[in-house]
Here is the input.
Amino acid sequence: MRAVYLDNNATTRVDPEALEAMLPFFTEQFGNPSSIHAFGASVGAALKTARRQLQELLGAAHDHEIVYTSGGTESDNAAILSALEAMPGRNEIVTSKVEHPAVLALCQRLEKIGRAKVHYIGVDALGRLDIGAYRAALSSNVALVTLMWANNETGTIFPIEGLAELAKQHGALFHTDAVQAVGKVPIFLQDSAVDMLSLSGHKLHAPKGIGALYVKRGTRFKPLLHGGHQERGRRAGTENTPGVIALGKAAQLALRHMADEQGRVRRLRDRLENAILERVPNCFVNGDANDRLPNTCNIAFEYVEGEAILLHLTRGGIAASSGSACTSGSLEPSHVLRAMNVPFTAAHGSIRFSFSRDNVEDDVDRVIEVLPGILDKLRALSPFWAGADKSAHQFKPVYA
Ligand SMILES: *Cc1c(COP(=O)(O)O)cnc(C)c1O
Here is the structure.
């Protein structure tokens, strides 16, 4: 039986074409791109091509606006720390309560050591940013606004262009963690007010351990890593050349497959979501049904533990993820769902299904086949289920 992988927001399979493109850079083309001799020069030329491929996916004006990093986490950290250093006299950061830990953990650390004051903007029940609170937090003290393009747990998309324009009005730099958006929704950074953007290879069918930070030309920037002059002095360290090549190829493929993502993948996701909402009582969608990534579906099942659902899915050969970051047995529900005020009983039973172009109709059929039975079985064990108000919780999809 073919395993069903529906956890593509956690990581994706490396595209065979990206793998094929990177392999020669481990062996025949092993040169250091900074070397003057022939071994280095040919690698340097290949890196240039890869940089152009990524530039095209982002709609960036210049290929040297791309700085290669080790991934999304490094890009986020580099952008935030750079802004604080590059904007003397400003020590405030504006972010949201639903960011990835790569942003939130650093912000909390900066607060703790007294390096910055951080505004954590809240969201509504659909995960949409509180624009009033955002406007109120902006001032001439703000060095950086950092807001994610799309949420990794719910897929909710923030209106990044407009939010960046508002930050500009206060002279603040604007960074977006676009790790989940790149390759899934069209992005065009030329003429945008976005100064910096993070992306990660392994979320778009390139390998783990390679990523990039887009830095708009003219943006004041201070490097995170100091050393050699690689990446025009913005990120020291010999480039991960196989990774860079694979990321370039993955960017080219992402552009080619964008229509598939917006069409076929979205339909797979919608078919699964509608079938679940129809067949399983007392469940609802977490996130903004309209402004949402085409591949992500996060559903809250009341009166059941998400971890228990996942365990049963795993036995059925299906890989998904729980909305709750139940790290090392802690029963804290996800910070994202908490910020959305999802009731405790539902936040604990939330499951994320995230698709990619590798998924097929059969994957959806398999989940629809087993999931209702799993829910029936688990809920029968719950002391609260028998007395639960089933009619009052018949949530319906709210699609346009
Ligand atoms: C995965 C992810 C990251 C971290 O990227 P890594 O390359 O794994 O460090 C950051 N932000 C978001 C939104 C992500 O989904």
